[in-house]
C-alpha cells in the first residue's frame, strides 16, 4: 500500500464501510471521499478526522511508514491531568435517561468523568487546538449506526447553538432531546433522520424549529471506554 488512497481503500474494506457511510462519519461529502480514493485528493484537510474515525496512526495513514495501529492513542488521553495532558473534556451521563429511539429526556446531565488530552490528542480527535465548549456523551442506542455505534463516545461542540449546515446535532424539541442528522430542505423546513435506516425520518417545519434549542453539533466519534483509562 504505497499511497493514501490504497491505505484508505484497505481500511474501508476491512471495516465494511461504504463511501457514503464514511463521508457521514467524518463530516464530508461522498464525492470528496471518492476523490481521495481515486488519488485526486492527496492531502485531505480532514486527515485527523479520517485517522481518528478509523482508529489508525495518522503518520502511517499519510506516509505508510511505521505501524498502522494507533499506539499514540494511549498517550493522547488520560484520566488524570499532567504536564502533557492539560485539555479537559467532561463526559456527560445521559445513559439513564435515553430511550430506544434516540430521544433523551435529561435537562442537566451529570459529569461522570473528565478525560484529559494532550495537544496531539486534541488535534487527532477534534482537528483543532481548543476543547472549549466540547463535551463527550455516550449514545446508548443504534439509531445513528453506522456513524455512531452504541456505546461510542461522541464529541459535541456546544458553542454551536443554531443550525449552521447539514450534520448531526443534539437538539431539544417539545420537551425531548434528540440526536439526529438535520438537513435543510428548499421550503425552509428541516428533515431529521437517523443513519440507521430502520428508523423513519421526520420533518420539522420552520415555525416549529424556531422553538427548538440546539445543544451542540457532532464533532467526532471515538470507540473507546473512558472507564478503561
Automatic annotation (TrEMBL):
CDD domains: HTH_XRE, S24_LexA-like. GO terms for molecular function: DNA binding. InterPro entries: Cro/C1-type_HTH (IPR001387), Lambda_DNA-bd_dom_sf (IPR010982), LexA-like (IPR039418), LexA/Signal_pep-like_sf (IPR036286), Peptidase_S24_S26A/B/C (IPR015927). Residues 8-61 form the HTH cro/C1-type domain. It comes from the Bacteria. Keywords: DNA-binding, Transcription, Transcription regulation. SMART domains: HTH_XRE. PROSITE patterns: HTH_CROC1 (PS50943). Signal peptide: none annotated. The keyword Transcription applies. It holds the Pfam family HTH_3. Gene3D superfamilies: lambda repressor-like DNA-binding domains, Umud Fragment, subunit A. This is Bacteriophage CI repressor protein. It comes from Pasteurella bettyae CCUG 2042.
Amino acid at each position: 500500500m504505497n499511497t493514501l488512497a490504497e491505505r484508505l481503500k484497505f481500511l474501508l474494506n476491512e471495516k465494511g464501510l461504504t463511501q457514503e457511510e464514511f463521508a457521514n462519519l467524518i463530516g464530508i461529502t461522498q464525492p470528496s471521499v471518492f476523490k481521495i480514493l481515486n488519488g485526486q485528493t492527496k492531502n485531505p484537510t480532514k486527515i485527523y478526522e479520517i485517522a481518528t474515525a478509523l482508529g489508525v496512526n495518522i503518520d502511517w495513514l499519510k506516509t505508510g511508514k511505521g505501524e498502522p495501529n494507533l499506539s499514540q492513542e494511549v498517550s493522547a488521553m488520560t484520566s488524570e491531568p499532567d504536564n502533557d495532558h492539560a485539555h479537559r473534556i467532561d463526559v456527560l451521563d445521559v445513559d439513564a435517561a435515553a430511550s430506544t429511539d434516540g430521544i433523551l429526556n435529561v435537562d442537566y446531565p451529570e459529569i461522570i468523568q473528565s478525560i484529559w488530552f494532550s495537544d496531539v490528542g486534541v488535534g487527532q480527535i477534534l482537528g483543532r487546538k481548543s476543547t472549549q465548549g466540547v463535551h463527550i456523551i455516550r449514545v446508548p442506542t443504534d439509531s445513528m449506526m453506522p456513524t455512531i455505534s452504541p456505546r461510542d463516545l461522541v464529541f459535541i461542540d456546544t458553542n454551536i447553538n443554531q443550525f449552521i449546515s447539514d450534520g448531526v446535532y443534539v437538539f431539544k424539541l417539545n420537551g425531548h432531546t434528540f440526536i439526529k442528522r438535520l438537513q435543510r430542505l428548499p421550503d425552509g423546513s428541516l428533515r431529521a433522520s437517523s443513519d440507521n435506516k430502520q428508523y423513519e425520518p421526520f420533518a420539522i417545519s420552520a415555525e416549529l424549529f424556531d422553538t427548538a434549542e440546539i445543544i451542540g453539533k457532532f464533532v467526532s466519534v471515538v470507540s473507546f471506554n473512558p472507564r478503561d483509562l
